[in-house]
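**Backbone shape codes:**
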Amino acid sequence: MDGNNTLYQFNPTTFNISTIGPLNCSTSSNLSSIALQRNGILWAAYQDGTLFEYNIRSAVCSSTTFVANQSNITQFTMTFVKSSTDTSETLYVSQQTDSNASLAKIDTNSLTLSVVGKYNALSTYAAIAGTNDGRLFGVFDASPYTIAQIGITNAQILSQYPLNLSSENDYLNYGFTVYNTRFFFFQGNNSYSNLYTFDLSTNTTTLQQTIPEIIYGATSSSCLGTS
């Protein structure tokens, strides 16, 4: 997703990017985050705290009854994380704040937000992503940028992986997602996006390419990469 609310499709094996089209949700606010549900619904959170559902098959965006600023969390990034039995998934959100950030989750039926806890380390802004084995990770706006595994029951930082980026200061736009054990980090200065990959199995960061699209959010299904 870019800053003009244009949705793109990204191939995690070839790195090809193709345009799907505008999101067309009925809001004048700027996008905060997107999260893809297994049923094909893309959840879109905006900076004013509103939450929309976008059907990627019908290209229809619908408002929800989600009440903004629950537990004093207005702006957040989000992702779906699948259960250990692979029968359901949970929508987790990470508070957008410069310090003392919280992890929370949203019940997609009642649209009630409940706080899981505050991060015990790296407590700044983070974009989050769920792996296909049910783990939660975030890329934290630290120095350097750091990918960390987050405990889904208590928000504790379980492990940290500092990233070796070529342009640490270009942080005005970024998106974060994962495919298997490979993380994808789009990062730029509002005029382009660098695409980095981080391989969890080898602990290596690689600059793959620079693209003209200004990416503000990225997401993948929690079942992507499974058989």
About this structure: The domain at 6-211 is CATH 2.120.10.80 (Neuraminidase). The chain has one domain: 6-211. The longest strand covers residues 204-211.
